[in-house]
Amino acid sequence: MTDAVCPTCNEEFKRVGSHWANGSCPYPRIPPRKQEMILGLLMGDGSIPTQPDGRNGVFHVPMVNRQFLEWYDNRMGLFTTGVSLKKTAEELAENNRESGFSPNAKAENYHDMYSVWSRGHPYFTRLRGWYESGTKRIPADFELTPKMAKFWYISDGFLDVDRNRTPRAEIRTHTESDRSEFLLDLFREHGFDPNFRRGTVRFSRDETRSFLNWMGTPPPGFEYKWVLDSRERYDRLKAQAYGEAHVL
């Protein structure tokens, strides 16, 4: 865990989260722009595991896209603790072989998995409310913003790329597949009209460009998910993001 300076007392701590937890200084407020990023990721790959002994919640983001996680960790500042290796490609392949999920899994077809953990914070404790039903669920009164949508899209979204047609943006959300109208309404509130099929929010090919523009500039590591006009550029940026540029 990296050293961090408490913004209240300006002292440096190895475990600044413990400094806040024991009441020496108040927890710093997480700015709204960071909260939007967190909420978007929580809609996707992010999670808030149960903490023992009444400790404050922590936010966990696992991904194979290390470039993005380095950027995300930098943007979160003292609220996160750095990028760490979660599992190697070989370990992931071995796990899938042993579980029977993919009996012939080979490491060459996997990527190393990395993760970023936050420090404990009351904000993440409050977000544990998303798990009241026993599984993660987006609150019924949730209001989507372009930035939240962006970080949901980079996490669970993709471009349905066909060499003969313009790509279309889609977002997979199998855990919310019983709430299709709720999910579609999140976007209808902003003038979009996607459809829902097989656990996936699907934008039309004509609407995809407007949707991508609405979300704004992609973060580092996910530029390829915004490329509509060049399959070659899409493939190149995707390969670079996952350390595969040599295969092109």
From TrEMBL:
The UniProt record lists the keyword Cytoplasm: no
The UniProt record lists the keyword Membrane: no
All copies of domain Homing endonuclease LAGLIDADG, residue ranges: 36-196
InterPro entries reported for this sequence: Homing_endonucl, LAGLIDADG_dom
Keyword annotations of the record: Endonuclease, Hydrolase, Nuclease
Gene Ontology terms, MF aspect: endonuclease activity
Protein name listed in UniProt: LAGLIDADG DNA endonuclease family protein
